[in-house]
Amino acid sequence: MTSGKWDEDESVVMFAESVGKFLDREASPETYAKWREDGVVDRAFWTKAAEAGLLGLSIDPEYGGHGGDFRHEATLIRQLFLRGLNAFGAPLHNAIVAPYIQMYGTEDQKRRWLPKMVTGELISAIAMSEPGAGSDLQGVRTRAVRDGDSYVINGQKTFITNGQTANLIAVICKTDPEAGSRGVSIVFVETDGCPGFQRGRNLDKLGLEAADTSELFFEDVRVPVENLLGGTEGQGFYQLMQKLPQERLMIAVQALGAIDRAMALTIDYVKERNAFGKKLIDFQNTQFKLAECKTEAAVAKAFVDDCIETHLREGLDATRASMAKLWLSECEARVVDECLQLFGGYGYMAEYPIAQMYRDARVQRIYGGTSEIMKVLISRSL
After folding, report:
1. Potential cystine with 237: which of 56, 181, 292, 364 (Cβ 3.0-4.6 Å)?
2. CA geometry: angle at 46 spanning 41 and 49, to 5°?
């Protein structure tokens, strides 16, 4: 990595421009509205994204990837959120699931799955949450029982991003229910033609309507023992804990993109909208509210940039990542709410992007670990 701010590196700037052009061409507001109506991003768009080099950003070239790093993952996230394309699940595919395979997978697992994740032949998901277990990973009830050369998986998952689309799913399950956290393993299920695997409802959500967030069911699903991540049982909890800081930093990056978009939309609106004979921007209340939001946005960016730089040096710990996730998601909620208020009645109309942003922002304080869980994790460092 060159010296200077991470997002000012020439290669990163060029990548951002390339991503922006692709999204403007292939994911117009009209197209995205259709995805929201359908409840899923069109599968063909994933293929186009792969052809444009947006899948497998950080996967090693040895496995067909682009050999990038978290700067490129953050750039893709930012470009998506600046356009309100929050529901496209490529960041999870690229920067959550792929790193598990690349860091912990056996050589056979890497060669089987990573190249197809780059081409979009395989779309991935991680099946963690259950009806009775959200942030509490030790409460997972899904079982994977060894039977000869196979694992037989039984259980139910919910709130699974890419749930209707994914055909490579990392399932968090118990291989030894009596061992607590040491009994958790990650077993991959290749769903194409897989008996016993069933997709449940594409869940009806408050926001992120274009995201295929789903229920998944596993009834005597049989997979080869070679699908156990890393080949050793009981490593799942450790693997998850090592990678959760990056997931939480991703949510902070998402929040920052949403903050910047909300500010841009609102500033444009108040400069055009008239009330009581003058522009909204000319009222001191409008100026003060936006001044507060701009200050919060600047502080947020400084913190996120520092976390990204630290992460690139492999120094981002769980406490700091939890602080980033907590503060940025809460900041996003405050800023989007203030911005919606400045739109007045129009801000309450679903057709206005700021109303969509208000709905989408709410889940940022829930997934990836709730704000309350973040506070618990942070308090352990006191």
Report:
1. 181
2. 125
Minimal CA–CA distance to 40: which of 188, 205, 190, 180? 205
CA angle 47, 361, 368 (to 5 degrees): 70
- The values of phi and psi at residue 218, to 5°, are -125, 110
Distance of CA 301 to the CA centre of its chain: 18
pTM (2 d.p.): 0.96
pLDDT exceeds cutoff 90 at 2: no
d(CA 52, CA 17): 12
Under 8 Å between Cβ of 209 and 33: no
The pLDDT value recorded for residue 3 is 45
Structure tokens at 229: 């991540």
For residues 239 and 259, give the distance between their C-alpha atoms in angstroms, rounded to a whole number: 31
End-to-end CA distance of the chain: 33
At residue 332, what is the residue type?
Answer: E
CA distances from 257 to 1, 33, 198, 304 (A): 23, 20, 35, 11
CA 41 to chain centre: 15
CB contact at 8 A, 66 and 59: yes
Q: What is the residue whose two structure tokens read 């900041």?
A: 331
* Total count of residues recorded for the chain: 382
Q: In the chain, what percentage of residues exceed pLDDT 90? A: 96
Please count the other Cβ atoms lying within 10 Å of the Cβ belonging to residue 28. 12
Residues annotated as catalytic (active site), given as ranges: 247
- Give CA angle at 169 (229, 368), nearest 5°: 90
pLDDT in tens, 85-139: 999 999 999 999 999 999 999 999 999 999 999 999 999 999 999 998 776 777 8
Helix (H, G, I), strand (E, B) or coil at 210: coil
Which of 80, 85, 109 is CA-nearest to residue 170? 109
Which residues neighbour 284 within 8 Å (Cβ) at sequence distance 6 or greater? none
Distance CA(189)–CA(12), nearest Å, equals: 34
Angle (deg, nearest 10), helices 236-272 and 284-312:
150
Task: Report which DSSP code applies to 58.
Answer: T
* pLDDT score of 4 more than 90: no
